[in-house]
Amino acid sequence: MGMTLTEKILARHANLASVEPGQIINAGVDLVLANELSAAVAIAVMRKIKGASRVFDASRIALVADHFVPAKDAQSAGLARLMKEFAAEQKIEHFFDVGRGGIEHVVLPEEGLVAPGELIVGGDSHTCTYGAFGAFATGMGSTDIAAAFVLGEVWLKVPASIKIVYSGTPGPMVYAKDIMLRTVGELGIDGATYRAIEYHGSTVDRLSITGRITMANMAIEAGAKNGIFHADEKTIAYVKERTDRPFLVERADPDAQYERVLKIDIGGLEPQVACPHTPDNVHPISQVTREDLPVDQVFIGSCTNGYIDDLRVVAKILDGKRIASNLRVIVNPGSQKVWMQAAQEGVLTTLAAAGCAVNTPGCGACFGGHMGTLGDGERAISTTNRNYVGRMGSPKAEVYLASPATCAASALTGRITDPREVVVGEAALAAEPKGAGV
Amino acid sequence: MEATLRGRAHKYGKNVDTDVIIPGKYCSIVDQAELGKHALEGLDPEYTTRMEPGDLIVAETNFGCGSSREVAPIALKGSGTSAVIAKSFARIFYRNALNIGLPIFESSEAVDGIESGDEIEVEPASGIVRNLTRGTEYRAAEFPPFMRALIDAGGLVPYVEKRLAEG
Hints:
The complex is a heterodimer of chains A (438) and B (167).
Chain A: H1 5-13, E1 24-28, E2 31-35, H2 36-48, E3 61-64, H3 74-90, E4 94-96, H4 104-110, E5 119-122, E6 136-139, H5 142-151, E7 153-157, E8 160-167, H6 176-187, E9 195-200, H7 202-205, H8 209-217, E10 226-228, H9 233-240, E11 260-265, E12 272-274, E13 282-284, H10 285-288, E14 297-300, H11 302-305, H12 308-318, E15 328-331, H13 336-344, H14 347-354, E16 356-358, E17 379-382, E18 398-401, H15 404-413, H16 419-422, H17 426-434
Parallel strand pairs in A: 2-3, 2-5, 3-4, 5-6, 8-9, 8-11, 9-10, 14-15, 14-17, 15-16, 17-18
Antiparallel strand pairs in A: 1-7, 12-13
Chain B: E1 5-12, H1 18-21, H2 32-36, H3 47-50, E2 56-59, H4 71-78, E3 83-86, H5 91-100, E4 104-106, H6 108-112, E5 119-123, E6 128-131, E7 136-139, H7 145-152, H8 156-166
Parallel strand pairs in B: 1-2, 2-3, 3-4
Antiparallel strand pairs in B: 1-5, 5-6, 6-7
């Protein structure tokens, strides 16, 4: 019987000829990731494991300080310091402090730490991002990460796979984010729980790497264990520019067994918005804007949409204009490298001139940590991935999730706005292939 | 997980996510008791003042969805919550709860048969859930053999120690 892409990777990492859904396996890992929050707990657990003084392979651990950086308070500074000391003690070279890295899921691909066919586990639910590169990647809690630090392997239940086949050409100002919001809306937030999502179809074949990152990143928003694309020449070129490490590109067998095949026709799709308070409460922008929805904060950034392509889209829409007077716009470039590139291209200047506040890279605002926390009664539109009650701060705040283009359009008008109303004609169409779009 | 658990039920809906179980701003806290003071704050700010140690959370589907923060089950444990009974659990929360020793049970029938305030008794080893208020009894889904072995071994840490000893 044929295997899906996920099954292929899991079988090879478990040294088995084949695996099937439901099977429990012990799989070797190529990389274990933690941030200062998950690492702090994982390190404490590791200290409790008798006979575990060293990590299994210091070159296969990545530690990124990103959630509360620069430190929000003494307590969070302590967590970052704990991780820094652990990195030194264990001689972990892939340690990224503030100013040298950025958001973990933006940093790891940039640094060539993720390649097709690999198996990556991370102490962060958005570890599934690396499925964009044809890797199996999944998020876990700190105790599981501690076990992976020590053993270099994890136990996994082989997930059944859902094949999603996308077809059609979307309308103007539609990006990978819109396609993924539509997908989460269709699946529901528990629609892929314990499952792998395998992305297929002509539409996603045309997606840029960052577009695939956006889609793989939000697989967890449908509850999935992982979301995965087949690596193609674009993927291989991206990875080879960043590492000499050999890797093996796996492909699903033609007779692979899928639990479900979902066909999504995105022909003529319009920009999508996830309304409060779940990421699957997704509606087309034309329905959402029937109600006048003034916003207090626009947020651009995160592991979903903090890439250079995303910032370029926003800069293009805001270029030479001023954001509305009733709101604030906070921009977090995803990594130090993205920040520098955006600076060199003049993107940051464009954004600042328009009235945006540009932060240092980090996760803070997205999860209500710091540097952009919402107050009672506030409404935000954000390029992030979750809008649960209290996600970005006050439980009495509202978060709408959308693409960078929709967020930028809303920044100009001060209310949730269809980007097609702001950017029209040739400019709208030209925005697509350059952006994180199709 | 041998002693019988007993307490009152606090019932919630579906998709109780980790952001409401322990909001992000508290994620730099490492102390279990301190985390416990904020358990479920985003959904029910009165939970920790209303509940008594030993009480149980009963919820619909997809409990614990969202982030991988292990402090979510730790906060529930720290609040004195003795167990969570739900129709289903999100994947990462499920692993985390078992890893840190928060008893969790899956039973749609039990959830449908329990209301807030009901006196509940659970036998962890057998998964038998008794609603003492209504005189009904349910059996939660059995853990898969591998998970059962992990639980019986005392969690993931002893399991890792055994693997290390095997070389």
